[in-house]
Amino acid sequence: MGAMSRTKGAAGERELRRLLEAELGPGISRNLSQTRDGGHDLTGVGPFAIEVKRYKRATASMLAAWWTQAEAQAESAGLRPALAWREDRAPWRVLVRLADVRPGLGPWPGIEWTAAVTLPAFAALVRETGRAVR
């Protein structure tokens, strides 16, 4: 990964952290050991392990690969996967499992069993599932 890509990624993580804190309050932080440990990008977002991506244009195959990464990182952390991404000049979107939106629908692995929600909808989901889980 090039320096510009890392810089864009870190800026995306900081931007998303600020937006989530505006919705949910303080306590969200960047996981600065993620590069060394291979973990998720943001901590303190309820029961979710969030993978953050910023890209000029995300393709379906990129989203599928990113979701696979998010699932693996969440599993190793004992949390629920979430993939937040933003394309250039577009709003943030968050991919979550259908089972997290509607309990009883799984949880089945794979991107086929996910829903893309807005950032305010994701914040509402975090509030509903409880911020106490870290």
UniProtKB/TrEMBL annotation:
Superkingdom of origin: Bacteria
UniProt-listed Pfam families: PDDEXK_15 (PF24608)
InterPro entries in alphabetical order: D14-like (IPR056931)
Protein's recorded name: Holliday junction resolvase
Organism name: Thioalkalivibrio paradoxus ARh 1
Lineage: Bacteria, Pseudomonadati, Pseudomonadota, Gammaproteobacteria, Chromatiales
